[in-house]
Design a protein that fits this description.
The complex is a heterodimer of chains A (about 280) and B (about 375). Chain A has about 280 residues and is an all-alpha fold. Chain A has 14 helices and two strands. Chain A folds into two domains: about 55 residues, no CATH class; about 220 residues, MetI-like (MetI-like fold, Orthogonal Bundle). Chain A starts with 5 loop residues before the first helix and ends with a helix. In chain B, α5 links the parallel β7 and β8. The chains are: A mainly alpha (about 280), B alpha+beta (about 375).
């Protein structure tokens, strides 16, 4: 909080915070209002006498109903959920082991391997999907959830590894040394002491990995072709935009419903995550 | 209960030779303190005993068995860390029980031992709490409890009291001493605090730059330090040092500097004979100086100028200038010395120290 005169608080705190909040929340508001707006209001020209872009007088659930009954949206949700959970699980598992090894075990080139992993994370997906699609074809995985479950970890594992490596480094190594003196072999010290203490870090890595795979677009677009295999981001944009016709109501309803799981995961776990951080690592 | 032996122990990191040729024998039931400034290799030595650092060369044996290659869990030791290293996600009870569970003790035995340790340390009421709900002193006790439940052969302490405030530190020091008397387990204790070392140790090992400087019981170190470093490190306030020249005159030896001239007393004189005409370092502890009275011989006293007077209650510390060097003297609390006053101080002839300027060894 900014100390001092009232005008200082307004200029340096309230005004910037308000601007920030408005800028962040406006797209969501736009999504909600477009979802609820009936078609006849949606396609009204801007110079019509009763044009009102920021509110609606006749809210309707028609678009949501259409989305759920006339498109494959529920299938896409299910696909996205399965793919995101599986990719997150694989990445977290590998990231945990790799992050632990890179931060705690002494072996040649540990530092440069860590940096190397980080660099692979920097290679843009827009480049990587070209060789990856070749691999997907060779393994005959195209148009199946496995195409994404196995490719998402290519960027999620470096990400999780890097994040967890940092977290493990922040845990005093005495904890583990003490466990090893207490009679735990290294893997037990890892399992019973380090991982439980690292739960806030593991949770945040999991949340980010889940969000990244939930929102992923390029791989999903390239590797999946049949409508019933698609994920939400790809399904909504490819099936609800036909040629140059935009089904704005359904599009926004899809975007809205599609962002709910992520928002839910965040709001639920971030609480957990913060409480974990404040009370943990200090012995 | 066990004897710990270190033979020709060395630890080299890439550039740094952290521990050099340490030979140490720690007897069964003995409480040995490793003390020295930071970076002197004391913690590294302890960690090698614990098995947390590999040994570059040499041997460590516990209870007549060489343990160089044994993992920490098989050495039957317990260690208390400076930051306590309590497992933050476990209750006090589970923290203490963890080592026993890992060693597959049965449940009633675990419960019995945890209860027993909690009673010894007076932490029965805390067993259900998490470490973050405890004060510094309570955490310290839990860390001790975790070490004693296992009834290990050797306790290792790595500066366990340095995170406590001054008052609690003194209290825990006494409790540690009692605990050791009661359990009689061999203990190696690392600290940078010479007071802790002197009060706790049956024997004290002074280290510097990876080498052992002197091993002895606390009063040995205080009364006859082996070299200038030990002399300056042990004792508070620290020993005064001054560069002097040894001169032979009228059949006796004199230590001369620009501010004072003292006759070298008889017991030391023969050893200093070879240094006649040479520079050596003269050392005298503040408590071995007093304000000169009529009975003090002229050749064991010198004139000083008082610069600072520190009244501590039980004693008064005088910071004085002697020629170009500064000294501290501890005098009676009844002394009436004032700042800027001229004062004649006398030294106790039996408690003078001389050190070779090149080797720093005591003469």
């Amino acid at each position: 909080m900014i100390e001092g005169a009232l005008w200082r608080r307004w200029v340096f705190f309230y005004v910037p915070v308000t601007a920030f909040v408005v800028a962040l929340l406006f797209p969501f508001y736009w999504m909600v209002i477009t979802t609820l707006r009936p078609d006849r209001e949606l396609y009204r020209p801007w110079n019509a006498p009763n044009y009102a872009p920021f509110w609606t007088t006749h809210p309707t659930l028609e678009h949501i109903h259409n989305l759920l009954t006339e498109t494959l949206f529920t299938t896409w949700m299910l696909n996205t959920m399965i793919i995101s959970l599986a990719a997150t699980a694989i990445s977290l598992f590998c990231g945990l082991l790799a992050g632990y090894a890179l931060s705690r075990l002494k072996f040649p080139f540990a530092g440069s391997i860590g940096t190397g992993i980080f660099i692979t994370y920097l290679v843009p997906q827009t480049l990587l999907f070209i060789p990856l699609s070749d691999i997907i074809r060779n393994f005959k995985l195209g148009d199946s959830p496995w195409a994404l479950i196995l490719t998402y970890p290519t960027f999620l594992i470096p990400f999780c590894t890097w994040l967890l490596m940092g977290y493990f480094k922040s845990i005093p190594k005495e904890l583990e040394e003490c466990a090893r003196i207490d009679g735990a072999p290294r893997w037990k010290a890892m399992l019973y002491i380090i991982f439980p203490v690292a739960i806030p870090g593991i949770l945040s890595a999991g949340i980010f990995a889940f969000t990244l795979s939930w929102n992923e677009f390029i791989y999903a677009l390239v590797f999946l072709s049949s409508p019933e295999q698609k994920t939400v981001p790809v399904g909504v944009t490819s099936e609800l935009v036909r040629g140059d016709v935009f089904f704005w109501g359904e599009l926004m309803a899809g975007a809205l419903l599609g962002s709910i799981p992520v928002a839910f995961v965040y709001s639920f776990f971030v609480e957990y995550y913060v409480s974990g951080i404040t009370g943990s690592v200090k012995g | 209960m066990a004897r710990v032996m270190m033979r020709g122990l060395n630890k080299k990191y890439d550039e740094v030779h952290a521990v050099i040729d340490v030979n140490l024998e720690i007897h069964d039931q003995e409480f040995v303190v490793l003390v020295g400034p930071s970076g002197c290799g004391k913690t590294t030595t302890l960690r090698m005993v614990a098995g947390l650092e590999s040994i570059t060369s040499g041997n460590i044996s516990i209870d007549e068995k060489v343990v160089n290659e044994l993992p920490p869990m098989d050495r039957d030791i317990a260690m208390v860390f400076q930051n306590y290293a309590l497992y933050p996600h476990m209750s006090v009870h589970d923290n203490m029980a963890f080592g026993l569970k890992m060693r597959k003790f049965d449940k009633p035995e675990i419960a019995r031992r945890v209860r027993e340790a909690a009673e010894i340390l007076g932490i029965q009421e805390l067993l259900k709490r998490k470490p973050r709900q405890l004060s510094g002193g309570q955490r310290q006790r839990v860390a001790l409890g975790r070490a004693i439940v296992r009834h290990p052969q050797v306790f290792l302490f790595d500066e366990p009291l340095s995170n406590l405030d001054a008052k609690l530190r003194v209290q825990m020091r006494v409790e540690l001493k009692k605990l050791h008397d009661r359990l009689g387990t061999t203990a190696i204790y690392v600290t940078h605090d010479q007071v802790e070392a002197m009060t706790l140790g049956d024997r004290v090992v002074v280290m510097r730059d990876g080498r052992v400087q002197q091993v002895g019981d606390p009063m040995d170190l205080y009364n006859s330090p082996a070299n200038r470093f030990v002399a300056g490190f042990i004792g508070s306030p620290a020993m005064n040092f001054a560069g002097v020249r040894i001169a032979a005159q009228n059949g006796s030896l004199w230590a001369e500097s620009d501010g004072f001239r003292i006759k070298v007393p008889q017991p030391i004189a023969p050893r200093l004979g070879a240094y006649a005409g040479k520079e050596v370092t003269f050392g005298v502890r503040p408590e071995d100086m007093h304000i000169a009275g009529d009975g003090d011989p002229q050749d064991l006293s010198f004139d000083t100028a008082v610069e600072v007077v520190e009244r501590l209650g039980a004693e008064i510390l005088l910071d004085v200038a002697v020629g170009s060097s500064a000294m501290v003297a501890s005098v009676e609390p009844t002394a009436t010395a004032k700042v800027h006053e001229k004062l004649r101080l006398a030294v106790n002839p039996e408690r003078l120290h001389f050190f070779d300027n090149e080797t720093e060894a005591a003469i």
